[in-house]
Amino acid sequence: MKKVFLNTLFLMLSIISFAQTSDISISVSDAETDGPLLGATVYFEELEKGAVTDFDGIATFTEIPNGNQTVKISYVGFKTIETTIEVGTKKEFSFKLESGGNELDEVVIQSSRSTRTVRKIPTRIEFIGAEELGEKAVMNPTNISMVLRESTGIQMQQTSLSSGNTNIRIQGLDGRYTQLLRDGFPLYGGFSSGLSILQIPPLDLQQFEIIKGSSSTLYGGGAIAGLINMVSKTPDEEPSLDIMLTQTQALGSTANVFYSKRNEKFGVSLYSSGHYQKAYDPEDDGFSNLPKTTSLSFNPKFFYYPSEKTTFWIGLNGTYDDRIGGDITKIESGENGIHQYTEENLSKRLSSQAVYETQIDSVSSLNIKNSISFFDRKLSITDFSFDGKQTNTFTEINYQKASKKTDWIFGANLYTSNFDENDNATLQRDQSDVTYGAFVNNIYDVSDSWILETGLRADYNTDFGFFPLPRVSLLYKNDSGFSSRIGGGLGYKIPDIFTEEAEYISFENVLAIDKSALKAERSYGVNFDVNYQTRLFDVVGFSVNQLFYVSAINNGLLLNSTDDGFFMFENATDKIISKGAETNIKFTYKDFRWFLNYALIDTKLNYLAGNPQKPLTAKHNAGSVLMYESDKWRIGYETFYTGKQFLSNGTETTDFITMGLLLMRNFKWGTTFVNFENFTDRRQSRFSPLVLPPHDNPEFPEIYAPTDGFIFSVGVIIKPFGNEDED
């Protein structure tokens, strides 16, 4: 009887115990600053109970059953944690979240030359990571134009229908004001500028870093509108092999291969790409909208790791590119009667990079880098050719020192550029430039909320003199998801003949740069932006970034006609002023992401009567990208609006909308995909002619809309070592 009584008592106590609940509180703080996180979501999924932390970072719950309970804690910009707590043992639980969850806080930006994360850099930097780059590589595996075209405030301006030559414009300013870097090296520009975008495949790139506004302090002249740094993939201990094959209905075929692997002392990455495009004429007007193209690229890199603190690597970039557009009959069958016009660009590029970087001690490091870039291009149209070779060199040494509150960077570099036109040319437009530079940059934590960045560069060009380039940026951030940046600086650009206007007329009758009569272009610019991120209804991530900017260029380089039929460069008598705003909004819900953007670009040419808007610059642009991403599927739907523009003759163009749809399916062995680019088939020929008579010597109006129209592509990415996105 006693035994039965004890068993019954034990059972009753157990039932009472299991039925008991507790009131608890969970505090959430930032692991880095130890400050409370306002608005963090704390959720008991099995109990379907959730709460949001208050100003002190505390979420309170009532009647939580005692025993082991699984809790999930998330906050925008921080890593989500899921763990088990034992309710009933205590009333208060504390957790620290590490940055780097859904956003970019943990990403280290190389273009800042600092080891800081995005969240602690006063300079506004836009980041495009490997995942998004992979999606853009599917949309356009031949070059990076798709990556840049869909970024807010960036326009890809096509300068030739026949060759497809394209320049990048940031915030309404010409492509020559943007500096293109690869792993911190200025490899593109000058004679190659109109082709550079078309000759950089995206498959071996790890991330993009975009800085808008004057960025000349760290990287020298040329970064008046901003800079774009493309960061290459580096080898890991696990081997990686991607084989990407793509085919379009426009008869374009592309193959990309990337391999990387490292061990304790050595590493290697190998990349090669091949692309063939048949001349494509969607209007059937006898002239190509996509040129016949044969392109080959290779990029091997070799890494040596003598110790855990030191890395040395060397790399080569090689490109052969032959593109010919114009009269379809001449391209396919040769010259015949009125079928006489073609434009051919035959180019060869070879560049080398060498980097030595070592960690001197726990707070300081030394970096030495050098590159040599050789570019050979022949541009041929009917009865005229422009042929030359350009050699650029870049050498830099910099020392970095970081402490808990401040980062210092000291550096010096040497940049040389030499363009040598073919000796048989009537006009000899050779040009050589040598620029010496020294710079210092400091990032200082004034407090937990305020961070100040200051910098000064001093450049000396042997022909145009001395350029002091100060720069300052200030960041404010708090724990409620709000931050704001303001910054500004000076810039300059050494004049050369490789402008959009000169390329538009194929450099024919363009006179050489007269260094004794021209001044270097100089600029100043200011950016101000605010950011806010939070959770809506506990489950929807929301972030918004609002940017305002103004940039002004003095002594702008203009190409004007002379009385004897030539074109000569002169300095503008008044400023070019670009001002505007950019809005970026992001929503996230489970596997869905929705991006909205709008850009107001108001670029005025004050040196012309009436201060007109810059030609071929849409004042209003907007976009929407809806993405669904799971382990197996990626589905994206895009819509982009381009507002009305003005041509050089003052004619107003029509506005238009383009749409795209991407479908990707992941398997253990790789990925298959289909892409419908511009599936509503918006192209300029639907609004106005692309080619004007006569047929044997045609005229080509300015390009303000897509010329190739709808492009459908299918492809596969084979991963012999397995697909990380597939379980």
Using the alpha-carbon principal axes, give the shape. Answer: globular
Instruction: Please report the number of helical segments.
Output: 7
Low-confidence stretches: 9-18, 101-105
Beta strand count: 37
Cα distance, first to last residue? 58 Å
Instruction: Supply the helix-strand structural class.
Output: mainly beta
- Structural Rg: 29 Å
Mean pLDDT over the residues: 89
Beta-strand residue percentage: over 45%
Helix content: under 10%
Q: Main β-sheet: number of strands, strand sense, barrel status?
A: 22 strands, antiparallel, barrel
Protein name: TonB-dependent receptor domain-containing protein
Family: Belongs to the TonB-dependent receptor family.
Domain TonB-dependent receptor-like beta-barrel: 279-667
Domain TonB-dependent receptor plug: 118-226
Please sum up the structure shown.
By secondary structure, this protein is mainly β.
Q: How would you characterize this protein structure?
A:
The chain has 727 residues and is mostly beta strands. It is 7% helix and 53% strand. The chain contains 7 helices and 37 strands. It has a 22-stranded antiparallel beta barrel. Strands 3-2-5-6 form a 4-stranded antiparallel beta sheet, with no helix packed on it. Strands 8-12-13-11 form a 4-stranded mixed beta sheet. Strand 21 and strand 22 form a beta hairpin. The longest helix has 18 residues. The chain is globular, with a radius of gyration of 29 Å. The termini are far apart. About 2% of the residues have low confidence.
